[in-house]
Amino acid sequence: MKPIIAVVGGSTCSPDETVAAAMVGRLLSEAGAVILCGGLGGVMEAVAKGAQAGVGGVTVGILPGSDPAAANSYIDVPLATGMGEMRNALIVRGAQAVIAIGGGVGTLSGQEPRRGGALGVGAGATAFMTASSNGGVY
Predict the structure, then answer these.
(1) How far is CA 61 from CA 12, 94, 107, 117, in A?
(2) Which of 6, 21, 74, 93 has its CA 20 to 30 A from that of 119?
(3) How far apart are alpha carbons 29 and 35 in whole angstroms?
């Protein structure tokens, strides 16, 4: 089974965060992971674009609204929830590990229900990593 890795971050992002997200997407794709994200713009679009630039990784967007057409063009599987920000819990709970890139309070709020590990990537190369609930480190 392919690992499912969530990537969370802001709907807008700096140029450095865009580059970091695209690189993370490409590397996850090359490692064979399925990428789970919010499916919209900013970090979510950059990570999905990076995944598509890799070896054609699979991207799943958990959308806040009810229209799957709202997903960015790099999302392979758009899931329209109609749940607004509550969909953040689905993103985090559906993954074996979470990578947070930039973002603000909304990005961090999604980490609360996390049952395993997380990796944060921010400006200035600050990062933290913990093991996932199934024993792996991502």
Answers:
(1) 16, 12, 15, 20
(2) 74
(3) 8
Which two tokens mark 2? 């392919």
Look at residue 54 in the predicted model and tell me its pLDDT. 73
**What is the fold of 4-129?**
Rossmann fold (3.40.50)
Joined tokens for residue 1: 């089974």
Q: Radius of gyration of the chain from Cα atoms?
A: 13
Crossing angle, helix 15-30 and helix 43-53, to 10 degrees?
Answer: 40
Question: pLDDT (tens digit, 9 = 90+) per residue, 51-91?
Answer: 998 776 899 999 999 999 999 999 999 999 999 999 999 99
44 closest CA partner among 7, 95, 80 = 7
Q: Which residues of the chain have pLDDT under 70?
A: 56, 103-138
